[in-house]
Every structure is written in C-alpha cells, then in structure tokens.
Design brief:
Helix content: over 70%
Structural class: mainly alpha
Number of helices: 6
C-alpha cells in the first residue's frame, strides 16, 4: 500500500514528495528535540562540547576562559551555550533537504559529510564571536545573537544546499550523458 502511494507520488510530483519528506523529518526531529531524554542524553553533551570547544578556541587568543557545565566564562563575561545554541536544527534541516531530494544517493554522500562539519565549525565561530561581543560590545550582544547569527545560519544553510543541488544535478547530467 505504502509503496504504491510512494510510486504514484513520485510520478505525479517529486517536489511534493520532497516537501512531504522534509516536513516529516522535521516534525519527527522537533518531537525528539522536545523530549527530556533527548535533552539530557543527546543535547546536553552537545552543548557541553560546544562550551568546551568555544572556550578552548577563545583561550588560543588569550581570553582566559573556563567552562562550568554549558557556561563559557572569564572575569569579564559569561556565556551560556543553551538549548538552541546547538546548531542541530539547521543541521537536521539541511541534511533532511539533501536526503529527501530526488537524486541518486551517491551524490548525497559528500554533502551529508561536509554539511554537518561546516555547521559545527560555523557554530564554534558563532560562540566565539558572541563571547567577544559580550566582552567588548555588550549592548550589541542581543542583536548579534538573535538577529545576525540566526540570519547567517539561514543564509549559510540555504546557500550550502543550493550549491550542493547545482553540483549534484550537474554531476547526474554528466553521468547520464
């Protein structure tokens, strides 16, 4: 029954199937994301990883930070790497978009490897920059945190997905030709 429905949807509208797949994956993700088990056993260690990595990176530049659970702090400022600062939502979104796009799976593999790594590095840069803003321009912190960095993540993920999409379609066309 499900296979015949999937076959019919693929023939009628691959874009509809892509959208339904994307919405389904994101729905499941946000359901898990709201569960206490997820928060304690998956999200908390991720947040602690970002706190430690951000602190270590800041210390390379001599900021003298330390970590207390998910807080990066020094004598001048304290930054809580809290829920939502984990970069999981944009990571899951771009990976879901890659996975559900109707193209050969072998063309998805490079993006499924590169995208999460790039988002992790971007998030570490985000944490470092927000800490530096908190120390040197605290009045600008909230705008940078909520407006600027969220926009950067949206643009980064959208541009990354579009770049992959153009690359993958071009590769698929060359493989067929």
């Amino acid at each position: 029954m499900f296979q015949s429905l999937k076959d019919r949807l693929q023939k009628q509208s691959p874009i509809l199937l892509f959208c339904l797949g994307l919405v389904t994956i994101m729905f499941i993700y946000y359901w898990f994301y709201s569960q206490e088990f997820f928060n304690e056993n998956i999200n908390r260690p991720i947040l602690e990883f970002y706190a430690w990595t951000g602190s270590g990176s800041l210390n390379i530049f001599g900021l003298g930070t330390s970590v207390n659970e998910t807080f990066v702090l020094n004598n001048e400022f304290s930054l809580n790497v809290g829920k939502g600062c984990d970069a999981l939502s944009p990571m899951v979104l771009i990976m879901a978009a890659i996975l559900t796009f109707p193209i050969a799976f072998k063309l998805k593999i490079p993006a499924l490897i590169i995208a999460p790594i790039a988002i992790i590095f971007l998030n570490i840069i985000r944490i470092m920059s927000l800490f530096l803003i908190g120390v040197h321009a605290p009045d600008f912190f909230e705008i940078a945190h909520v407006e600027i960095w969220q926009s950067i993540f949206i643009i980064f993920c959208l541009m990354g997905w579009l770049y992959w999409l153009v690359w993958a379609v071009k590769k698929q066309k060359h493989a067929v030709a």
